[in-house]
Predict the 3D structure of the following.
Amino acid sequence: MTELPMQRGLLFCLSGPSGVGKGTVIAEVRRRRPQIAHSVSMTTRIARPGEIDGVHYFFKNTEEFRHLLEHGEILEHDNYCGNYYGTPRTPLEAMRDEGRDVLMDITVPGSMAVMKNYSDVVMLFLMPPTLSELRYRLTKRGTECESVVEQRLLKGRSEINKANLFDYVVINDELDATVDRILAIIDAEHCRYERLKGIENFVLSR
Ligand code: 5GP
């Protein structure tokens, strides 16, 4: 295969209501394509059973989070249902510089903030097949009490209403099919001419 000049990794924001399966989808994308990186967020939320610091999130207290924010270490942040969530800036830039695509699992306002700073970001919205299926998934997960589930569902409704702000909408009905579509989008984005500017000169010079 022709060796092209190295591209900087692309940035993909994956948003969607809590419980839609963003984490599972990202894990499966990475299982199939380990070269794709995941931006591990920081949060002030308490770790759920099985969550590992540095793998699922970097768990911080509010003071630590504020400190990092003030020192410009957080690229975007949001308060979601009473907890702070934010994207660490340095690792994300480093992974892109290595040529790795980076997937971010963030809220809708977080995605909008990224879009303001990175005009080339690709915005993906992961959609549940129905609202009742979303309720079922959130309840089945069993990680939140009933009132938190209701709070997240309420928030989910307003997030679903913002799907029009995204480049792509993928309905997460069946995991394998969802991952197929997301990988197809990633591949297609790499073929956009704007990502390959100068390719003709490279080809013609050889
Ligand atoms: P959870 O508590 O279920 O892990 O996450 C709650 C919400 O926070 C999810 O919608 C998730 O996408 C979002 N989230 C996770 N990390 C970040 C982040 O770094 N920034 C923003 N803005 N949202 C995040």
User: Anything to note?
Assistant: Residues 18, 22, 41, 45, 76, 78, 80, 85-87, 105-107, 110 surround guanosine-5'-monophosphate (CB under 6 Å). The domain at 11-204 is CATH 3.40.50.300 (Rossmann fold). The chain has one domain: 11-204.
